[in-house]
Amino acid sequence: MHAMQSGYTSFESAMRRLLTLIEEPVPSGSEWHKDLVELIIHPVPDLRPAIIDDRKLARALSQLRGFRHVATHVYNEFDRDPAALAVKAAETFLAGIEPAIARFRAVIDPG
Questions:
Q1: How far is the C-alpha of 33 from the C-alpha of 27, rounded, in Å?
Q2: What is the pTM of this model?
Q3: Taken in order 35, 40, 43, 45, is the CA torsion positive or negative?
Q4: How many Cβ atoms sit within 10 Å of the Cβ of residue 65?
Q5: Rounded Cα gap, residues 20 and 24, in angstroms
Q6: What CA–CA distance (Å, rounded) separates 61 from 8?
Q7: pLDDT in tens, 4-43
Q8: d(Cα 8, Cα 14) in Å, to the nearest integer?
Q9: Is the distance from CB of 19 to CB of 52 less than 8 angstroms?
Q10: CA distance to 22, 50, 104, 107, per residue, from 86 (Å)
């Protein structure tokens, strides 16, 4: 559970750094985790394509974001069913993240 939380948190950090590199505002406030996912799955007209352009991968990110919350805040009420869904989401994430980032990079840095 905590390994998945750490992995997802690392992904969020990488996306925040990427947004900073391309000089795009980084979400803040109490909803920043949700806002970050929303931001990276949509293109910004005249600035960049979606960073994550695969709907299946976007759904997996939302599932993992929710599980991150569970791993962070739920201590005594661990439910195996949502955990199993999060593991499937992690598998989807692992299979899809490298190609998604490669597609994004090919557009913003074709050289």
A1: 8
A2: 0.84
A3: positive
A4: 18
A5: 6
A6: 8
A7: 778 888 999 999 999 999 999 999 999 999 999 999 999 9
A8: 10
A9: no
A10: 30, 23, 25, 30
